Every structure is written in structure tokens, then in C-alpha cells.
Amino acid sequence: MARGTRQTDNSKKSVARFRLHGGLEELLVRRYRSDLPSYRFRDNPGIKDAIETMGIPHTEVDVILANGLSVNFSYPLQDNDIIDVYPVFSYVPVAKSLKLTPCPPDPVSFVLDVHLGKLARRMRLLGFDVCYRNDLDDAEIMEIAERENRIILTRDLGILKHRKVMCGYLVRSDHLDYQLREVLKRYDLHGRIRLWLRCMVCNGLMERVEKADVLDRLEPKTRLYYEDFHRCSSCDQLYWQGSHYKKIQLWLNNFMALNPLT
């Protein structure tokens, strides 16, 4: 029997090297985690496909430099390219650069995946328009984002790599307050906070209501001790400044002290 010989795979002769900035290196899949990740290829693939293959969704990328020149997602990779990839709000060492991240919708609004229910409630508490249901799948989230011009917030890298997704952000932290800080920073939202504008349950707008109009819905002690009431215009949920409200207000005070509106 003839002895087999090892065949060298010459199908991917070209190589480009990537430098990731602003924390993007944390998103790399394991085989690309090195000081200067190498991407091997044949022909001249678009740089967007290369970046996403390495683990980074296009929604996380704001500027790409190819050999020091700013390029867009359609740039065809060349052999021996040095590629720098930057997220939003990073310092980019060129005079002019192509911004690849679309401007967020105005007014800003969001749709959150099933893993971010607590974040949805907190964002509503700060007055942001947040669509959330715990039964939405990826296809429904993308459809809502496209139809209603909403930003996708998710813990799932996969959905952000879909070509239909224009605006989105991968929430990194497992801790609720840090998640909230991430989103406020990513979309520069501190100046847009409007406390108690929306219902935490359903996202409806809050409205002041006369006590007499809801008297039949109140427990005896609530009737006795409270005078100011608000009602959700969508789900009819009642709000007043009881013990739950005071706990939320204490959290708000602490949170805002660390995250001023400036």
C-alpha cells in the first residue's frame, strides 16, 4: 500500500492583521485572540464579513482603518493589510474618518431581547421608550426594530450580525446598574432622562389622575394617607408614593449621584 503524503492547503494564502480598540478585543472568538489577530483568506472578501467572522458584530464598529486610511464595510481585504477597528467614542488617529455607525433614531427608542427584562423596566423608569416582551424571538425583534425604527439591545451576539440590523448594542455586564450605565453612555442619554414619564409595566405614558376618580380602586390605608396619583394611559396601572415608590426613589438618588445629567 502506498504511503499517503500530507497536502498543504494553499487555498488561503493571503493574510490581514487586525488591531482592535476600545474593548472590541473582548468580543473575539477564541481562535483570533492574540496580540495581533491574523485573518487568513483567499480572493478579496469584504471586510465586514471578516470582522464578523472574528466575532465582532457590525453594529459595534464605528471606524475602520485599512493601512491608516478610513474605509467602509465594503472594502475588499488585501494581502498584508493592517486593519484597525474602533467602536463609538474612540479616539481615531486620522484627520477625517468614515463613521459607520448610523445616528440613533430621534426620538430614541429601543427593543430589548428576552434576557433584559429588568433593564427594560429601569429604562422605562428613566423615561425611555422601550419595547419588551419575554416571548419575542430574534425574528420578531428585528421586525419591530425595522418597522418602528428602534435600537436593539441584546445579550446575544448572533442577532447583531444579521444584515437587517442597522442599530444595536451588545450589553456586556450581568449587573443591572452597570447595564444601564452602558446604555446611557453608548447613546449619550444622560440629558434625555425624564423620571416617571412611562409605566414600568407596559411602557405607556403616565398621566396625573384625581384621587376621586380612582377612589374605588384604593385600599383603606392608601385612601387615608396618599393624595397624589398617576395612572398609565395604556394599561391603567396606578402609581402613588408608597413604600415601593420610596425604595425606587432611593435607588434613583444613588444612581443619579453616580451618573449626573451632564
Shape, principal axes of CA atoms: elongated
- How many beta-strand runs? 12
* Relative helix content: 25-40%
The biggest sheet amounts to: 5 strands, mixed
SSE topology string = EEHEEEEHEHEHEHEHHEEH
The total of helices stands at 8
Average pLDDT metric: 92
Can you tell me the residue ranges where pLDDT is under 50 for at least 5 consecutive residues? Answer: 1-9
Tell me what portion of residues adopts beta-strand conformation.
Answer: 15-25%
State the separation between the terminal residues, measured CA to CA.
Answer: 78 Å
Question: How many domain units?
Answer: 3
Structural class: alpha/beta
Rg over CA atoms? 24 Å
Q: How do the strands line up in the largest sheet? A: 2-1-5-3-4
Describe this protein's structure.
The chain has helices at residues 47-53, 117-125, 138-148, 157-160, 176-186, 211-214, 220-225, 243-258; strands spanning 14-20, 38-41, 63-66, 69-71, 82-86, 109-112, 129-131, 151-154, 168-170, 206-209, 229-232, 238-240. It has 262 residues and is an alpha/beta fold. The chain folds into three domains: 14-86, Roll (Ubiquitin-like (UB roll)); 109-192; 206-243, no CATH class. The strands form three sheets. A five-stranded mixed beta sheet has the order 2-1-5-3-4, with no helix packed on it. Strand 3 and strand 4 (69-71) form a beta hairpin. It is elongated, with a radius of gyration of 24 Å. The termini are far apart.
